[in-house]
Every structure is written in structure tokens, then in C-alpha cells.
Amino acid sequence: MRGAPININIYMLKINSFENASAVNIGQNLLANWNNSDKKTQGFGQNFGDDSAFLGPQSFIDDRDLVDSPATFNALPKMRGKG
Fold first, then answer.
1. Are 24 and 8 in contact (CB under 8 A)?
2. Per-10-residue mean pLDDT for the chain, 83 residues long?
3. Angle at 40 between CA 42 and CA 44, to 5 degrees
4. Which of 15, 61, 62, 55 has its CA nearest to residue 42?
């Protein structure tokens, strides 16, 4: 299900597309514990921008792997000081 198109303008910065776990940060930021696992199977990639297009795309994808995203996210244990 797709929502409304994104169109964000910050002075001269134009954002009209977001991907998984995306962020726009200005100033001091601490982005802690951000995890993302993503796989895309794209024959001809992505094309973003105003008035940009693919003309006659042709592609072939050979995707034989059995597990597409074998990812786990575990927090590391905190180290305790000696003494």
C-alpha cells in the first residue's frame, strides 16, 4: 500500500523519496541503536530526479540464494570496569 508522495523542501534541498531507515539530520544528532536490513533485486537500479527517465530498459536477474536477509540485531553487552 502506497501513501501520498513525499515532497520536502528545506531551502535549496529537495527531498522527494525516502528509503528504509532514512533520516534527514540538521545540527547535532545522535542516532543510537538504528538497525536496518534490506535487500532489493533490481535489474536496472533506481532513477530519482526531476524529468529523469529510463529509455528502453532491459535486464536479467539471477537470484538463487535461499535466504535473502539473514540478519540479526543484538545489543552488545556492556563492559564492566575492573577494580
1. yes
2. 72 80 85 76 70 74 72 68 60
3. 15
4. 61
| Closest among 33, 38, 32 to 18, alpha carbons compared | 38
Q: Which amino acid is at 32?
A: A
Q: Are 54 and 46 in contact (CB under 8 A)?
A: no
Q: Across the strands, what pairs with 64?
A: none
Output the nine-digit C-alpha cell for 13.
534541498
Q: What amino acid is encoded at 71 in this protein?
A: A
* pLDDT at residue 70, rounded to an integer: 66
Q: Are 43 and 57 in contact (CB under 8 A)?
A: yes
